[in-house]
Amino acid sequence: MKIWKYGDNVDTDMLFPGKYVYTCSKPEEIKPHLLEDLDLSFSKNVKEGDIIIAGKNFGCGSSREQPVVGLKTVGIKAVVAVSFARIFYRSAVNQGLLLIECPEAVKAYSEEDEVELDASAGKITVGGKIFSFPKLPKEIIAIVDAGGLLEYTRSKLKNKSKK
Amino acid sequence: MGMTFAEKLLAKYAGLKSVVPGQIVTVHPDHLLAHDNASAIIEKIKPELNQYGIYSKSLPVIVLDHVIPASSEKIAANHKAVREFVKNFKIENFFDIGFGVCHQIVVEKGLALPGKLILGSDSHTTSYGAIGAFASGIDRTEAAALLLTGETWLKVPNSIKIVLKGKLKPGVYAKDVILHIIGDISSSGADYCSVEFHGDVDQFSVDDRFTIANMGVEMGAKNAVFFVDDVTKKYLKSIGVSKSAYDSIYPDENASYSKELEYDLSKIVPVVSCPHTVDNVKPVTEVAGLEIQQCLLGTCTNGRLSDLKVAADILKGKKISANVRLLVLPASKDVLEKALEAGIIETLVKAGGIILPPGCGPCLGAHQGILAPGERCLSTSNRNFKGRMGCKDAELYLASPATVAASALYGKITDPRDVMK
């Protein structure tokens, strides 16, 4: 498992350049351009289960969802950041991508540190130190547990039409 | 305890007497905005659309504006899919290419009104706070779910009160005000928050308020709002909206804010947002003289009649530098028509400007006016992220229409006050 470390204000153009937004929407089209203007090595080397650790305001900017869909597609286990931009956070809920807002864990991390994540317990271990993060509200857990907002909506529609 | 604007509006839409920050409520927005991304949105839910249909044909507002006219076969096919969807599902509010930027259209056509709740699959949906609506950006997946069900959840935000006091000096505009504020509180300074503008705001036209609310998202805001006053009422009357069509919501005097900020407008100077974050704001005097190769005047941030007029007043009877390309992007067909009638377009073209069709144009780097490595662009748009105009090795600076026009004259960043004397 690799840790990808980035700084503050990683914006949506760095995560997925605007020039591809209206031509690449499917997961397989998104992957090669993921983080293209930030880190060319990312899409080539990222592996399932990797974690991103970043500074404040991660995902700021556009409402494009390719960054979240892309990170989910390549198997990023979680993004741990000092803070997240609002639309990005919401989008992550919709795709079932785990975001952890934990400034202390970000601060504690230094290169080569072992990172362990226990999402259900709300705990992250960085270089031997344990940090806890709050659970999501129940309304949001329902969406994540359903496998994302579209699956959640599909089951809601199905139940409604049964009645 | 009194309630803020966001609390009052969300309580109304949740059917509750009161709400508190952090509370999650279920709401049915009045409208859902989509643009070129409507093709990707409907693609996600094709079987469900066929089985269940859409929640309401009056909910969606679809405007083709991002890559217009189509720049490739793929984009053309996307536009075609949107037109077919509109026809099949009898969507009431559809605006094909050429009408203008979606945000301008939503306000201009009276679809966003005071006291309404609008969600849009575009981050600059915050713009409609200019006329007292609660408006916020969402992603494509959520737009797809809304098309089917008409409902979603919202977390009641904390609110920030920004009091604007005093009067702007000549050469300083709404764009300088919002860039100054973002420079002060940072790109994340209003994350998740509802921003309310109070104070001496009657000096700001609806065009000015649009510029400020549009950039609310650049400080992380969920929505950014100006309350209904005579300026709003006069504007709404001018576009044919009657008073009975809207609900003016005001915060209580004893409402509770997570932050209160005050700015003395008389002390704000023309500023420029420098690469590659919007909050990297400097007085224009600090970057004056920097050579530029492209200027962009327009977009949903500054493409209205008053913006084009400020630039035309500076450029009248003059020629821009031979080293600069001045791209002019009116926010809508309506703006373009009015600018034609007022002689503004003639002035801009004679000065060397290139008129682009009303839409998003070069702002997002998907087509038109893409920069080359090493080039610098001064733009009235809202974002200067690395790669934003299609090239990661180019530099983007943001400023007011006056600063952009003055700079186009000399081919370098120029203090507009120097040419307005």
Please describe the topology of this protein.
The complex is a heterodimer of chains A (163) and B (421).
Chain A (H helix, E strand, L loop, with lengths): L2 E3 L6 H4 L11 H4 L9 H6 L5 E4 L11 H8 L4 E4 L4 H10 L3 E3 L1 H6 L6 E4 L4 E4 L2 E4 L5 H8 L3 H14 L1
Parallel strand pairs in A: 1-2, 2-3, 3-4
Antiparallel strand pairs in A: 5-6, 6-7
Helix pairs in contact in A: 4-5
Chain B lengths: L4 H10 L9 E4 L3 E4 L3 H7 L1 H7 L7 E4 L9 H16 L4 E3 L6 H7 L8 E4 L13 E4 L2 H10 L2 E4 L3 E7 L8 H12 L8 E6 L6 H9 L8 E4 L3 H9 L20 E6 L6 E3 L7 E3 H4 L6 E5 H4 L2 H11 L9 E5 L3 H9 L2 H7 L2 E3 L20 E4 L15 E4 L2 H10 L5 H4 L2
Parallel strand pairs in B: 2-3, 2-5, 3-4, 5-6, 8-9, 8-11, 9-10, 14-15, 14-17, 15-16, 17-18
Antiparallel strand pairs in B: 1-7, 12-13
Helix pairs in contact in B: 2-4, 2-6, 7-8, 12-14, 12-15
Oligomer: heterodimer
What letter string, H or E per element, gives the SSE order of chain A?
EHHHEHEHEHEEEHH
Give the amount of beta strand of chain B, in percent.
Answer: 15-25%
Largest interface between protein chains, with number of residues from each side: A-B, 43 and 52 residues
* Residue share in helix of chain B: 25-40%
Our estimate of the beta-strand percent of chain A is: 15-25%
End-to-end CA span of chain B: 51 Å
Q: Write down the Rg of chain A.
A: 16 Å
How many strands, which pairing sense, and closed or not: the largest β-sheet of chain A? Answer: 4 strands, parallel
Return residue spans of chain B where pLDDT drops below 50 for at least 5 consecutive residues.
none
| Structural class by sheet pairing and helices of chain A | alpha/beta
**Outline of chain A:** globular
**Distance N terminus to C terminus of chain A?**
46 Å
Task: Specify the number of helices of chain A.
Answer: 8
Written overview of the protein:
- The complex is a heterodimer of chains A (163) and B (421).
- Chain A is of the alpha/beta class and 163 residues long.
- Chain A has helices at residues 12-15, 27-30, 40-45, 66-73, 86-95, 103-108, 138-145, 149-162, and strands at 3-5, 51-54, 78-81, 99-101, 115-118, 123-126, 129-132.
- In chain A, strands 1-2-3-4 form a four-stranded parallel sheet. Chain A has a three-stranded antiparallel sheet with strand order 5-6-7.
- In chain A, strand 3, helix 5 and strand 4 form a beta-alpha-beta unit.
- The longest helix of chain A has 14 residues, at 149-162.
- Chain A is globular.
- The termini of chain A are far apart.
- Chain B has 421 residues and is an alpha/beta fold.
- Chain B is built from 16 helices and 18 strands.
- The termini of chain B are far apart.
- The chains are: A alpha/beta (163), B alpha/beta (421).
- The interface between A and B is large, with 43 and 52 residues.
